[in-house]
Design goal:
By secondary structure, this protein is mainly beta. It has a four-stranded antiparallel beta sheet with strand order 3-2-1-28, with no helix packed on it. Strands 4-5-6-7 form a four-stranded antiparallel beta sheet, with no helix packed on it. It has two domains: about 35 residues; about 350 residues, Methylamine Dehydrogenase, Chain H, CATH 2.130.10.
């Protein structure tokens, strides 16, 4: 009996030791995750890193020299000027290639509408021009890359045209593989006298290219051949927004089931259900980006989805705020959270940093960039820092992990 008693006690001690070891292992594992900034981050880059940010500007009638480089501290939310990255005329939109080696700028200069390819030197924060090609239209205002990183899409505002350029192995742009010019007009005679392509991006599966045309009140749809870089009008060829709305930019939900368009002229966000098989859009909700009772001039500008998929942001120029919406993941419906002042005039663009913790609003007419912390539970914005002396900032894009 004494032997059985000791054996039972020893078994209990062994079990306790195993449990303790498991507990310590779990604590060590979760602690390491926290240190690395990975716990609950859904694979996003860890906080505490610095990121190189390139800021596109308007050089016409300003003292700007082109593209500026800043270092962004993802722990404090502060920007530090690195200097002029590249002297180039009116680089109103800048995108980074997924490999981090190349950058592409839309030169929106009226007399010389071009698209420029650059090589990135992250250590010096400099961009070296590789080549430059005509944008095949007037006033290129938006660039994006297909999901393979092999093609660059261009939207030309004044001419209402779009183009596709192949990206060569050395990062230079090749001769275009597709080009379309839209036709038609809208009810707003001052702003919709003709087509105005303002945004172009590939669908999540890379099989479709969507274009927001402000002048036509349409989201045009093209079938995309990623092996040849060609475009073919889809059937149906477009989806409509409200007459006179002026669709400007769009963004997909994280699961690709929903698509959201911000309209510049009537200050709204239109929500669509997206059928990937047919490439069709069906609208189901329209919400205002402005508070009730607001009277005065306002032009909506940018729209972006939070990396976590819970929050949608849109910018107001005139009201000078960022409108925040909660996103229902199952229905795609939007619920207004509020409008938050950007601390400056004309937030033409804003960007969410790679960690998803900060939103950076570029105030074009105030020559400033204001950084806000995003509350992960409510989506609300709290001002963290302000950087003055940025000449006419209209675009910001990040190069992670410098």
């Amino acid at each position: 009996m004494r032997y059985l008693h000791y054996a039972a006690r020893n078994d209990n001690i062994v079990r306790m030791m195993k449990t303790t070891r498991r507990l310590f292992a779990f604590v060590a594992f979760t602690t390491s995750l926290a240190v690395l900034g990975l716990a609950g981050a859904a694979g996003r880059p860890a906080a505490g890193h610095s990121y190189l940010a390139f800021v596109g500007t308007y050089t016409n009638r300003t003292d700007s020299k082109g593209i500026y480089a800043y270092e962004f501290d993802a722990e404090t939310g502060k920007l530090s000027l690195k200097g002029v990255a590249a002297e180039t005329p009116d680089p109103s939109f800048v995108v980074i290639h997924p490999n981090g080696k190349y950058a592409y700028a839309a030169n929106e200069a009226d007399k010389q509408s071009m698209v420029t390819a650059f090589a990135i030197d992250a250590k010096s924060a400099k961009l070296t021009q590789l080549n430059q090609l005509p944008a095949l239209g007037a006033s290129p205002c938006y660039l994006s890359l297909d999901k393979t990183g092999k093609y660059l899409f261009v939207a030309n505002y004044s001419s209402g045209s779009i183009a596709v350029f192949p990206i060569l192995t050395d990062g230079r742009l090749g001769e275009h593989t597709a080009m379309f010019r839209h036709k038609g007009s809208g009810p707003n005679k001052k702003r919709q006298e003709g087509p105005h392509a303002h945004w172009i991006e590939a669908s999540p599966d890379n099989k479709l290219v969507l274009v927001a045309d402000l002048g036509l009140d349409e989201i045009l749809s093209y079938r995309f051949d990623a092996t040849k870089g060609t475009l073919t009008p889809n059937d149906p060829a477009f989806a409509k927004v409200a007459p006179g709305a002026g669709p400007r930019h769009g963004v997909f939900s994280l699961d690709g089931k929903f698509f959201y368009v911000v309209s510049e002229l009537n200050a709204t966000v239109t929500a669509f259900a997206y059928d990937a098989g047919k490439g069709t859009l069906k609208d189901f909700q329209v919400v205002s980006t402005l508070p009730k009772g607001f009277q005065g001039r306002n032009d909506d500008a940018e729209i972006a989805m939070h990396p976590g998929g819970k929050w949608l942001f849109a910018s107001n120029r005139g009201h000078d705020t960022i409108a925040v919406f909660a996103v229902d993941p199952s229905s795609g419906m939007l619920r207004p959270v509020g409008e938050f002042p950007t601390g400056g005039k004309e937030p033409r663009h804003f960007a969410i940093d790679p960690t998803g913790r900060f939103l950076l609003a570029e105030n074009q007419l105030s020559n400033s960039i204001v950084v806000f912390r995003i509350d992960p539970a409510t989506g609300t914005l709290t001002r963290v820092s302000k950087t003055d002396g940025v000449p006419s900032p209209v675009c910001l894009t990040f190069l992670p992990n410098i």
